[in-house]
Design brief:
The complex is a heterodimer of chains A (326) and B (156). Chain A is mostly beta strands and 326 residues long. Chain A contains three helices and 21 strands. Chain A folds into two domains: 171 residues, ntegrin, alpha v. Chain A, domain 3 (Immunoglobulin-like, Sandwich), CATH 2.60.40.1510; 110 residues, Immunoglobulin-like (Sandwich), CATH 2.60.40. Chain B has an eight-stranded antiparallel β-barrel. The longest helix of chain B is centred in the first third of the chain and has 21 residues. Classes of the chains: A mainly beta (326), B mainly beta (156).
Chain lengths: 326, 156
């Protein structure tokens, strides 16, 4: 009978583990994002270009997977192109078939990246779109941290038509081995500076900020839908806790004008449906006398009967509703 | 002489006569008299004045969250659908102006179309309408395609 030799490493202090962990991270990291060139601002509807200088540090795998995390409202899959140049070859990249699964977990790429990477500093309203290289290149066997394959990935995308502040993200992986569960052959990067898109009317949707209060139960809606607005005065301990009447003050923003309904009338009076819980349903086309498709956003606040107490969001701005018809 | 009678058998002729007679009788019993027009398909009759009694949004009853009773729909027919009148107040409905209406199939309609001011909007019946019944149910979207509104109308 043979006995498998064992090696015991005695760790005297947790600090002694750090170099070992660092070595492990470096050894299993197949990709390095060296530098990202991304604009910090853009005008609505503008095409922006982002480049990522990357390194491949081992020779396992040959088919690049690239993910792009963008606001869902941009519909980035319709307006984004990706290509790369590298020391071993150049290629365009194509949107991956949504049903294509990785060989490791047998799940669609976008779904896995969403679950495992998330949306960075964005509170939500984002999506990952995934591209696969049209051409495969096997790195030379000498590829290592000291002798990496270098390359530049170029992404062009058209930003959406509404004002938004968002943190864009990027993912690198490899199709031959799939999305390994130890993340050993993938990496991701979120640009620290949030991109601000401006130029449309109304205040920006700050996806980099705190998640907004959920005023509507509908997952998707636009301004031709019936909007059932629910306001919980106890959330964030607002000054309307204990109020006997609560009114909605609303502005509809469209391309060329703003329509305000801030008067205290039966139409704007909210119905009490529970302790400090208020509800009002409005149908924007009749409430503002504007076709819902012409409304780009709604700005809301809640007031008592005197108008002296006004509740806005925690940052002091009106609550913002943007169409979410994905 | 008939070819089936062999040897001039009277018995054979008698049997034939009997069977023939039975056959004739049987044919007379199977004949059906169809009244004129009985096979014609009739247009489903939804003529009259209707009001909304229930509204669901994606299956959730929202009848009480809005004043849907403002909606009054009058469907006129002259054998076939003709014109309609609609009053909605502030309540949501796919059409807000009077116009013409028609079915996709007069006898077995699955949808109803409203045409007003050169705009046409079709909505589906949520259940097959019954001619002369006192209620019908339609489903439609107003904004996002995920949000399905179902209105139940009762006859006034």
């Amino acid at each position: 009978m043979t006995v498998k030799p064992t090696v015991k490493i005695k760790i005297k202090s947790p600090a002694a583990l750090l170099p070992l962990l660092l070595i492990l991270v470096i050894m299993v990291s197949c990709f390095n994002v060296v530098r990202v060139h991304q604009p910090s601002s853009a005008t609505v509807g503008e095409e922006i270009t982002v480049t990522l200088d990357v390194e491949v540090t081992d020779d396992a795998g040959s088919t690049l997977i690239f993910g792009f995390c963008a606001p869902r409202s941009w519909k980035a899959s319709l307006s984004t192109s990706v290509s790369f140049t590298s020391s071993i070859g150049n290629s365009t990249m194509s949107l991956i078939d949504p049903n294509e699964v990785d060989v490791e977990n047998k799940r669609p790429w976008a779904q896995q990246i969403t679950d495992r990477v998330g949306f960075g500093g964005n509170y939500g309203e984002m999506e990952w779109i995934v591209f696969k290289a049209d051409n495969s290149f096997t790195p030379p066997s000498s590829t290592s941290e000291d002798d990496p394959v270098t390359g530049t990935i170029t992404l062009k995308t058209t930003v959406g038509e509404s004002n938004v502040i968002t943190q864009l993200g990027y993912f690198l992986g490899e199709a031959d081995w799939g999305y390994l569960n130890d993340d050993g052959n993938s990496t991701y990067f979120f640009e620290e500076t949030c991109l601000e898109v401006s130029g449309a009317s109304g205040q920006p949707q700050d996806l980099c900020g705190p998640a907004p209060r959920k005023l509507l139960s509908l997952e998707t809606y636009d301004f031709n839908d019936l909007l059932i607005i629910t306001f919980d005065a106890q959330e964030d301990s607002t000054e309307l806790v204990g109020a006997t009447d609560v009114y909605l003050c609303a502005q509809a923003i469209s391309a060329d004008h703003t329509t305000e309904r801030c008067e205290k009338t039966p139409d704007s009076k909210m119905m009490k449906i529970g302790p400090d819980l208020w509800q009002l349903a409005i149908w924007p086309p009749s409430y503002f006398n504007i076709d819902g498709t012409d409304i780009s956003e709604l700005l809301l606040n809640f007031q008592d009967a005197t108008g002296q107490v006004v509740v806005r969001n925690v940052s002091g701005r009106d609550f913002q509703l943007l169409p979410k018809c994905f | 002489m008939p070819f089936f009678v062999s040897g001039g058998s009277k018995t054979t002729l008698l049997w034939f006569a009997l069977l023939y007679g039975l056959g004739m009788t049987s044919c007379e019993d199977q004949s059906v008299t169809i009244p004129e027009g009985a096979l014609q398909e009739h247009t489903v009759d939804l003529s009259g004045q209707w009001h909304v009694v229930q509204v669901t949004l994606n299956g959730t009853d929202i009848t009480t969250v809005y004043d849907f009773e403002q909606i009054r729909l009058t469907l006129n027919m002259d054998q076939l659908p003709t014109d309609f009148e609609i009053e909605t107040g502030t309540a949501p409905f796919p059409v807000v102006e009077n116009g013409q209406w028609y079915y996709n199939d007069p006898a077995y309609p699955t949808s109803i179309s409203f045409t007003a001011d050169n705009h046409q909007r079709s909505v589906d019946f949520a259940a097959p309408p019954i001619s002369g019944d006192s209620s019908f149910k339609i489903s439609f979207t107003l904004g996002c395609p995920d949000n399905v509104y179902t209105y139940t109308f009762n006859k006034q």
